[in-house]
Amino acid sequence: MSSEKQPEKKRDPNNPCLFCKDARGVSLSNEHAYSARDSYAVSPGHTLVIPRRHVASFFDLMPEEINACMELISGERRLLDQEFKPDGYNIGVNIGAAAGQSIFHVHIHIIPRYQGDVDNPQGGIRHVIPKKGHYTRR
Amino acid sequence: MSSEKQPEKKRDPNNPCLFCKDARGVSLSNEHAYSARDSYAVSPGHTLVIPRRHVASFFDLMPEEINACMELISGERRLLDQEFKPDGYNIGVNIGAAAGQSIFHVHIHIIPRYQGDVDNPQGGIRHVIPKKGHYTRR
Lengths: 138, 138
Fold this sequence. Notes:
Number of helices of chain A: 1
Order of helices and strands of chain A: EEEHEE
Strand order of the largest sheet of chain A: 1-2-3-5-4
Strand content of chain A: 15-25%
Largest sheet of chain A: 5 strands, antiparallel
Low-confidence stretches of chain A: none
Oligomer: homodimer
Largest interface: A-B, 54 and 54 residues
Helix content of chain A: 10-25%
Radius of gyration of chain A: 17 Å
Shape of chain A: globular
Mean pLDDT of chain A: 90
């Protein structure tokens, strides 16, 4: 009998898909999509908008699914403005592992931003390529 | 008479608005939006999708403007796939100076991504908050 501890097994978020199962903590929902706060929030109020259909790429969404997502983005903006009073937002999606996607069920990030949350916010989502985020206007 | 050099005056991209004027280098266009390659590309093929109407915030777009932008995002994806053969994409928008917006006319970034363009791409647009981009799944 061994007393060695087994390393804790981490849940694979893709098997079963974390965003297909009955979502706990749903914030808003409609026919084709729902929203939920991000479990690894990068800022207070960080929220995901998730189409119900299991598809990996944003490019594979149908127009009615995109519209459903846009409706929830607007609704979340109202909720987040009230609850968190952010000074701005980044909205974006990662498509493919090379772009940083790790759960292969489309999810659109809504990231509330706050004055001073980073030293120099200029560039915003340009910072996906960390050294290229800042630029000097010619 | 002075021989001092005047510091070169940098163009203010908001006055007049860089994205309202007759755009050079338009890639695709439709009734409500156009696309163009980014002048400060963070990756080969970095493209902007820009509604024609001058409005600062993505949240102030009307449904037909959002649909027009989505149409151009799809069209650009086809063009960029052909020309640059990226391995993924980030798509996103900055809303407000606190979120890194510096030209106050809505523009949606399409950032093609390539294997190895950063050491660890995981997180993607989470990197708007640089230290929070990476996370370890619990």
